[in-house]
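Regression test case RT-17, inverse folding.

Input:
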């Protein structure tokens, strides 16, 4: 498998698709998967609000999980050069920062949890829409690079 990556075809811009600075735009499946995951979590957030379920976990494992996701998403945001992907990962980082804050805030008022669930639902929905913008992004970039090279 390593030989396949080192012998990847070079695009008109001189970069292989794996070094193009695109994490999600390379394949439409990632944009679609991002959208579906974000849509699911937005739905869950709004479902909690509609059912008046405002409890939030405050255990160490949940906090550690948020930290791992935040570090991963920040790394992905810095690894890409694609603005659409940076916005997508940035929205997810903001969402996970809110979740981490709620996890470590043990005596948070119920009204604040409700507001946070609405805000995170909006962030999930926004991230889902941004994720859809990455579909076909690599093909668009490839065509632009081809025109520039010609």
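Golden output:
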């Amino acid at each position: 498998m390593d030989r396949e990556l080192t012998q990847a075809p070079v695009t008109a811009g001189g970069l292989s698709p794996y070094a193009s600075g695109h994490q999600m735009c390379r394949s439409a499946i990632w944009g679609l998967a991002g959208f579906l995951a974000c849509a699911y979590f937005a739905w869950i957030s709004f479902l909690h609000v509609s059912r008046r379920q405002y409890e939030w976990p405050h255990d160490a494992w949940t906090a550690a999980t948020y930290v791992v996701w935040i570090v991963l998403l920040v790394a992905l945001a810095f690894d890409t050069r694609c603005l659409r992907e940076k916005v997508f990962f940035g929205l997810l980082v903001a969402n996970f920062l809110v979740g981490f804050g709620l996890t470590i805030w043990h005596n948070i008022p119920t009204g604040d949890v409700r507001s946070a669930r609405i805000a995170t639902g909006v962030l999930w929905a926004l991230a889902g829409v941004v994720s859809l913008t990455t579909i076909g992004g690599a093909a668009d970039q490839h065509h632009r690079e081809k025109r520039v090279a010609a």
